[in-house]
Amino acid sequence: MAELLKSDFYFDLPKELIAQDPLEDRSASRLLLLDKDTGAVSHHVFRDIVDYLYPGDCLVLNNTKVIPARLLGEREGTGAHVEVLLLKRREGDVWETLVKPGKKCRPGTRLLFGGGLLRAEVLETVEEGNRLIHFEYEGIFEEVLDKLGEMPLPPYITHKLQDKERYQTVYAKYEGSAAAPTAGLHFTKELLAEIEAKGVEIAYVTLHVGLGTFRPVKEENVLQHHMHSEYYQVTEEAAEKINRTKRSGGRIVCVGTTSCRTIESAADENGIVQSGCDNTEIFIYPGYRFKVLDALITNFHLPESTLVMLVSALAGREAVLSAYEEAVREKYRFFSFGDAMFIADFSQSEKDRNRK
């Protein structure tokens, strides 16, 4: 494929459809079903998802936990305001960060947070203007961060989050993300218990969501876009559940693009998921052949984003953009705190279910 244009993934989204606050009931979001074979759509409530997951399926969830990665502080000596977003722990107390204003934070610059409860020094400027920063503190870093840090909500959310836990999934376990795997925000513990009771396997994988979430595609030719590296881990138990489901003819249903990217990165050329941990820069766009994933539960994504491209690889660009236009007409809520979409081959699923 010589060229794939960013503009091919544009759609018009009225600003008022960007969800600013999470719903009180996680599972009360709306759910759009998109048949990846026919392009047909239908409208539901998220808790109806249990009716479209079948015994023998495997639901794959990303159990990463968002850290309060947004730090507001000042430059030592000048008192000038500075904002630091923690992206990835490099080693010990050295983090790769996104700094605003970046021009004023050259190597050697000293920073203070919480009146000096947390101190830092800019070490060097790395790829795309990110800063490596060394932090100094007394006690335990995570406890200091919990006291001073804010949840790193995306820039399109302007409302203040009242409850930090609403930007975490109910199954979040391993700290390390700079953004939530938002498709998972719709699940409650009760809904997951109902899904398991139906005979659906649940496999947990971990991918720490990092820089890619915050970086728009700048090149018009999509194939020139570089994805940033993100750490993932697949346990032996998760790999076995996924591989067993594939062998027995069940569907692998990923919750969110991060779960999808994890298992596609961890699979060998025969589609067998390998356990272990690694970093992935996988970029999925139309033309990609999925090795493991059969169906995807996902939120509605930004125009021209790598996430819209991933979804288009599964269901076809025209079908996805048509479904997005329908969602806009029906006034679905978009992005992190918005509604969800379930992309699967529903006619095939029905046949398989009847055969069983």
Structure characteristics:
17 strands, 356 residues, Thrombin, subunit H, six-stranded antiparallel β-barrel, globular, QueA-like, alpha/beta, 2 domains, 20% helix
Short description:
The chain has 356 residues and is of the alpha/beta class. It folds into 2 domains: 6-66 and 163-355, QueA-like (3-Layer(aba) Sandwich), CATH 3.40.1780; 70-148, Beta Barrel (Thrombin, subunit H), CATH 2.40.10.
- Low-confidence segments, ≥5 residues, pLDDT <50? none
Strand proportion: 25-35%
- CATH homology-level superfamily of the largest domain: QueA-like
H/E element sequence? EEEEEEEEEEHEHEEHEHEEHHEH
What share of residues is helical?
10-25%
CATH architecture of the largest domain: 3-Layer(aba) Sandwich
- Estimate the mean pLDDT confidence: 94
Computed Rg: 21 Å
Number of helices: 7
Strand order, biggest sheet? 2-1-17-16-14-3-12-13-15
Largest sheet: 9 strands, mixed
Can you describe this structure?
- The chain is α/β, with parallel strands linked by helices.
- The chain has 2 domains: 6-66 and 163-355, 3-Layer(aba) Sandwich (QueA-like); 70-148, QueA-like (Thrombin, subunit H), CATH 2.40.10.240.
- 20% of the residues lie in helices and 27% in strands.
- The protein contains 7 helices and 17 strands.
- It has helices spanning 141-148, 189-197, 236-247, 257-266, 306-315, 317-329, 346-355; strands at 30-35, 41-45, 58-62, 64-66, 70-75, 81-91, 94-100, 110-113, 118-125, 131-137, 174-177, 201-207, 230-234, 252-255, 276-280, 295-299, 340-344.
- The strands form 3 sheets. It has a 9-stranded mixed β-sheet with strand order 2-1-17-16-14-3-12-13-15.
- The two termini are 40 Å apart.
